[in-house]
Design brief:
Layout lengths: L1 H11 L2 H4 L4 E9 L6 H11 L3 E7 L15 H14 L8 E4 L3 E4 L3 H12 L5 E7 L2 E7 L5 E15 L9 E17 L4 E6 L6 E8 L6 E7 L2
Parallel strand pairs: 1-2
Antiparallel strand pairs: 1-3, 3-4, 5-6, 6-9, 7-8, 7-10, 10-11
């Protein structure tokens, strides 16, 4: 509880830079239930949600060390490896936090997280809207500061695991915004517009749309929709 209060105090110092709620800043956390260093970073991500738009991406390279993370996917490992090359990091590791596709650091580092949120809040963002209708969600993107790909991520709002083996044996872990899939919808030109209808997420899920340079570059805007 004290840890949460300390973080809330630190986070309060930067609220003026990331307001309003659901600010169009994308925070990705590469994590694993098999890693003993990850639960503190999971807590940081939980505290950031819903002040910014968060994605919890569970990698699979810890699965052979005693506990198979039920939320893990090799697709997220590949995405993290691509970030490693793009950002010239030493190598994939957990917990790794990435802000707007442009800065990477240890996901437990709350001070660094707030610093990067301040920087990201000053950058121009695309306008992204998701409007529910009879055919699902209508995704609309406009005023993108750069050309980029438009992606859709579907994530579970929250989940709890009782870990029975591995480094977190005996711990009850809580996660938010657990990504189940990420797919490319199309592309948008600088200053251009994009529109497409997509299926709405199911109960207990959220949809996140973001504009990203190339396959794994800087993120130029994001939005989240929850039923």
């Amino acid at each position: 509880m004290l840890r949460k209060l300390i973080f809330a105090s630190l986070f309060g110092a930067v609220l003026c830079a990331v307001e309003p709620t659901h600010a169009p800043i994308l925070v990705e956390l590469f994590t694993s239930e098999g890693c003993s260093s990850c639960p503190p970073a999971d807590l940081v991500l939980e505290q950031l949600d819903p002040q910014v738009i968060v994605l919890s991406e569970h990698v699979d390279y810890w699965n052979q060390l005693g506990w198979k993370d039920p939320f893990s996917s090799h697709a997220f490992t590949l995405r993290q490896e691509a970030y490693t090359r793009q950002l010239k990091a030493d190598g994939p590791y957990t917990p790794e936090m990435i802000v707007d596709g442009a800065a990477e650091f240890n996901g437990s580092d709350t001070v660094r997280a707030l610093q990067e949120l301040r920087k990201a809040a000053k950058q121009p963002k695309a306008t992204i809207r998701m409007t529910p209708g009879s055919a699902g969600l209508q995704v609309q993107v406009s005023d993108s500061p750069h050309a980029g790909n438009v992606y859709l991520a579907i994530a579970d709002n929250a989940a709890v695991s009782q870990v029975a083996a591995g480094e977190n044996h005996g711990k009850r872990l809580h996660h938010v915004a657990i990504v189940r899939s990420i797919r490319k919808l199309g592309t948008v030109k600088k200053g251009g517009e994009f529109s497409q209808s997509v299926a709405a997420p199911g109960p207990g899920q959220r949809a996140i749309v973001f504009v990203q340079e190339s396959d794994i570059g800087p993120v130029y805007g994001a939005a989240v929709w929850t039923p």
